[in-house]
Amino acid sequence: MKKMIALGFEGSANKIGVGVVTLDGTILSNPRHTYITPPGHGFLPRETAQHHLQHVLPLIKAALKTAEITPDDIDCLCYTKGPGMGAPLQVSAIVVRVLSQLWKKPIVAVNHCVAHIEMGRIVTGADDPVVLYVSGGNTQVIAYSEGRYRIFGETIDIAVGNCLDRFARVLTLSNDPSPGYNIEQVR
């Protein structure tokens, strides 16, 4: 029996990724490239989108090669619809629409927050998690209720992810591989 295969695009912030996954959550490939700014600087939407445009085609080729598949093997194309930074999100959305037309594949829009939760649920085997979701501009308490994920609480000031990003810039730490990781390495 053939496994359903999706080619997915994530480009909601400074990282562009193209992954190949099966319906059961098996990751066949996951190449990505991070837009690295000088230490102490943040990343701006326009420059980030330009970075994504420069790297998305090589990432598609790498994802297909590593997964050992062709476009004919793909059942659907997925992309991060949001939340995230507008200009970088548009890159993935446009690429997916073009590939959908070329390859005659359906498109699945994915909520960034739900995708993170679902990945964690698959990895941990959790059936009904309550999640403290911390990603970039979002810090929320989320749980599955009445057939969908619902936000039960969230920050009204600065999100934890953005707080770490800003703190790393003040310390002039690189965002490679990530500001939070680099903060942890400082002693």
Concise account of the structure shown:
By secondary structure, this protein is an alpha+beta fold. It has five helices and nine strands.
Describe it for me?
It catalyses: L-threonylcarbamoyladenylate + adenosine(37) in tRNA = N(6)-L-threonylcarbamoyladenosine(37) in tRNA + AMP + H(+). This protein has five helices and nine strands; from the N terminus they run E-E-E-E-H-E-H-E-H-E-E-E-H-H. It is α+β, with helices and mostly antiparallel strands and 187 residues long. The protein folds into two domains: 5-125, ATPase, nucleotide binding domain (Nucleotidyltransferase, domain 5), CATH 3.30.420.40; 128-186, ATPase, nucleotide binding domain (Nucleotidyltransferase, domain 5, 2-Layer Sandwich). Strands 1, 2, 3, 4, 5 and 6 form a six-stranded mixed beta sheet that branches. Strand 8 (138-145) and strand 9 (148-154) form a beta hairpin. Helix 1 runs parallel beside helix 2 (86-103) and helix 4 (160-170) packs across helix 5 (179-185). It is globular and about 50 Å long. The model has no long low-confidence stretch (mean pLDDT 92).
